[in-house]
Design brief:
The protein has about 230 residues and is of the alpha+beta class. It contains 6 helices and 14 strands. The strands form 4 sheets. It has a 6-stranded mixed β-sheet with strand order 5-4-12-13-14-11.
Amino acid sequence: LTAGLKVALLDRTPLSTSLAPRSEGYIPNPRVTTITPASESFLKSFGGWSDEIHNRSAPFDIMQVWDAAGLGHVTYSAADAKTDVLGRVIENDVLQSSLHQIIKAMSNVDFLCTSLNSLELGSESGSNEGLALLELSDGTKAKARLVVGSDGNRSRVRQLAGIRTIGWRYNHHAVVSTVRTIDPITTAYQRFLPTGPIALLPSDRGFANVVWSTTPSHAARLAAMDAATFA
């Protein structure tokens, strides 16, 4: 379906197809993505699931959720879902490195290390025959039948296209940290506190990630703590 398409991928961050080796004192990056079995199957379908991703992922087969004000809890298990794992936690740079290798090998994809400067949407009745006109920050100009904006909550594509959105603040910030556990964990924990949920997710090599969502003032105090005080 996509073999005949010519694709230009814009990103200000250069492609990175290699990872630094894990040294003795290596600590996993707290910026991670949780991949479900369905997403894992999708990545495998086009070669995006490498041995490196598998070896550097942290699987979990149980998820336990409870409320600070209650006595009970809810537990989900991979056995109940008739699968090996409920998900895998993977460092973002590990996942991106594998996907970048796929992109680099595709002859119909041009990776441009630049950003979008201006965008003029075309119309079927206009002189551009329905093509969008793009000017990039390096001065390059291009035409496209389809422009996809997947550039985050402050999307430049959305702004230039004049697409309106409605949003509001939740008055919550998330503090993310990496901790070492006595034994590797294969359970994902989440507890709902009065100020917001706190989660403990398995990470690579016996580490775990703490994701603490709380009020902005509390988050600022947590972020200002040294490692010993936070622990």
